[in-house]
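I wish you would study the pair of lines that follows with an eye to the fold:

===
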Amino acid sequence: METQNKIAILDFGSQYTKLIARRIRELSVYSEILPYNTDPKDLADPAIKGVILSGGPRSVLADGAPAVVPEFWDLDKPILGICYGLQLMCRDHGGAVVSADDREYGPATLQLEAVTNPLFKGFETQTRVWMSHGDRLEQAPAGFHILGTSDNAPITAMAHDSRPLFGIQFHPEVSHSQNGLTLLKNFVTGICGCDQDWLMADYMEATVAEIREQVGDDHVLLGLSGGVDSSVAAALIHRAIGDQLTCVFVDHGMMRKDERRQVVHTFKDQFGIHLIDVDASDLFLGRLSGVNDPEKKRKIIGRTFVEVFDSEAGKLKNVTYLAQGTLYPDVIESAVAVGPAQTIKSHHNVGGLPEKMNLRLLEPLRELFKDEVRQVGRLLGLPEVMVERHPFPGPGLAVRILGEITREGVAVLQEADAIFIDLLHKWGLYNEVSQAFAVLLPVRTVGIMGDERTYEQVCAIRSVSTTDFMTADWSRLPYDFLAEVSSRIVNEVKGINRVVLDITSKPPGTIEWE
């Protein structure tokens, strides 16, 4: 959606760059992440009201460190440098940046010289902030004055005497920084003068109009998985073009319990969307027979998915567009932002795009973060259970069953997983954690049930809490809740006689087991 009111964020590789963008959008102002070497001519766009320089993992003192061209500093608009961005601003204007003897990672106290600067409107003279830096400013450039200090950084904040150039050593975007959102609001709405007009209801209606104009009388095909992204994309496109949308749901036999029924009921019965429901479970499970290696499983599932999807698409006529639930983080991660970085992923769907389909791409959610997609889903009337659903891997339960995949194993895991998720909802914990699921292990243990010896499989339960899924911590769930989960799974799921809890964070572990 075109907007005449936005903030550009130049990405120098910080793990927090996306969080800066999200925080600004929380202020109802549109933000856009761009590579650090974006041409200053593009940044001169009148719609861009201000520019933020993100942090980064490199040192500005290192050879080949990411930098902006000299012409960048001639931009006639406010600029805020965060961490690496501050150091770059200092270096490029003739100040002194040095490698700090005492690096600063974690909480620190910001001591403000005064609170009269508009960047710190509403602050006390002392406030807790979050630091993450190895270099520090030793001397401010000529024409800049110091706004604040900390124990290990003599210059923690600075501003130009006459131009709207600001730099801070700490990260206001993280929740650990007190008044961090206030600082961003001061910069975005006060200093840059942005209107707080980024509203999901307006975005949704504007996107519906754009889809109608783009598609015209053509037809759109969408692969529906039942996850949040594809579900919202389907509902949004259907709002725009109605029967010109056809969705294909491929059941590969490794879905969550009752998922196929829920998807068909929601989209075919409630929304009236033309849905092709394909039960390909025999084909998928047959090809997975005897396969234990997790990477081979993924490849088999990916190839088979494309084959089935392509076959169904070939039966349709007058389809011009392939729609996908690509989100803004997918777009960012698919672009090389800093130096010789490698593409993290080119697309998030289970099998990738069928190369021979020759369809144009329609991605109505590509400007949105996940929380914004959920807001759109609610506005469209999707069930809350679908809008708040945790992430689910494209290969489904195949990566949660260690070892060979069998129909019997899938059925056992579906029951155990359903009990775990059901109890999370009943205890009011589901929305308190980021992702939770059960795993079926290729391990058998001895147990006693009804005075009889059992020798059955082990189920592991995993729940993590995270903001970005790049790092995650295991969820501290109540003992009484865990006791009920274990009791119900062991008593109700034939084939499992022991439940264990995964308490591994990411890193060093991954969220999924395979």
Q: What stands out?
A: Residues 299 and 351 are 8 Å apart (CA to CA). The radius of gyration is 26 Å. The chain is about 30% helix and 25% strand.
